[in-house]
Specification:
104 residues, alpha+beta, 4-stranded antiparallel sheet, 33% helix
Length: 104
């Protein structure tokens, strides 16, 4: 499995709620339709930093998700909310452990 990490800095903090809603409503449906999709997480950090982590079966599929995310930013006209291109990194997941989440 491969992960792609996109770190967005200088995010317009007054638009964070809007970004989260748009990710849920329009980006996640696009990403989840990509071949090899294994999951996605959006992390709201401090000081205008938002990081996303996507999981895919292959490196090529993970790379494709970055293209989809870039197109999504333009389609949703979020260039002012996300004024800087993300720092993108990723690679093969070589160790992994998560506890199973159980809903009450």
């Amino acid at each position: 499995m491969f992960a792609t990490i996109r770190r967005y800095e200088s995010v317009d903090q007054s638009r964070t709620d809007e970004l989260v809603k748009k990710v849920d409503a329009t980006l996640l449906p696009r990403l989840s339709k990509l071949a090899g999709f294994g999951g996605y997480q959006l992390i709201k950090g401090d000081d205008g930093v938002i990081t996303s982590v996507g999981y895919f079966d292959t490196a090529a599929q993970a790379d494709e998700s970055t293209k989809v995310a870039s197109t999504w930013v333009r389609d949703e006209k979020l260039e002012t909310a996300l004024p800087n291109p993300p720092r993108v990194s990723g690679g093969e997941i070589v160790a992994h452990k998560m506890r199973e989440l159980v809903k009450a």
